[in-house]
Amino acid sequence: PAEQAAWWGADDVGEIDDGGEERPGEAEIAREVEAANIDVVREDVAPPASLSWNCRWCGGGGTTSCNWTGEPVGCKECGGRGTYTAETITLNIAASRVPDISALRHALRRPQSQEALVHALEICDEHKVQELVDAGADVQAGFQKYAELVLTRYLMNANLSTKVKKFQTFVDCGATTTDQELKLLNQSWFHGCADRSAVRRIEEILKAALPKIVLNLNVKEASDDSWDITVHNVGGDLVATLKDVSPSLTLGEFKEEIKAQTSIAGER
After folding, report:
1. For residue range 230-266, what is the model confidence (pLDDT) as tens digits?
2. What angle, rounded to 10 degrees, do the helices at 139-148 and 164-172 form?
């Protein structure tokens, strides 16, 4: 009864069912569950049969046009079914094969493992990333898997440019670039690629998402026209020393000097 009330859409005020008995409202159900210290899994209750979502590839028709003949053929993505119901929708299907985000929200009502959530992050459209992160998916793990997927398997894909925006979405959701992504990026320049401009845009996003490193500088005048500079990290450890530095040294040149003496990239 409590679970059914959720599907019927009862509010805080109880409703009267066909048998003349009052059904509890949503708020009342919540209070009872909290008082009993139990979890109600509403997904275990049969959802309304009217819930359905169209396949993104065939639009719900169950068929697509053959690339060679132009004749209608059964959609391979959905197996010719055209639509998915509340009973047949899964997390992977909702993440990658159905454009309507309500399908994903329905799938997330069921308990999902972290592994499943991270995989969904890897294969989903960019507008579904935030929904999965809010559901508890590890955004950093998903970011790393997606970067590996795109910078290896998708380099020769004609649709590589469509994969760029999702990198920024991951960053906006809190992901940061690690040495793993930079290594993949560097390796990508030595492989064939369908769209180098897309890789350059990915590079810009990855470098902008590098965690910033705070350094402390101690500048000492060595002579009238030169400085001695020591660079320490926030823990007080010496990371670089620059001798006889000209006052005309630019910020870019200074970053390159630090980079030459440490493993710290100039962007950081």
Report:
1. 877 766 777 778 777 777 777 777 677 766 766 555 4
2. 160
CB 121 within 8 A of CB 144: no
CB environment 249-264: b (16+ within 10 A), e (fewer): eeeeebeebbeeeeeb
Which residue, among 124, 177, 40, 174, has the nearest Cα to 132 in the 3D structure? 124
Q: Which amino acid is at 38?
A: I
Q: What are the phi and psi torsion angles at 8 (to 5°)?
A: -70, -15
Nearest residue to 64 via CA among 45, 81, 41: 81
pTM, entire model = 0.65
| Matching residue, tokens 């996003």 | 205
List all residues 6 or more positions away from 215 whose beta carbon is below 8 Å from its beta carbon.
231, 232, 233, 234, 239, 258
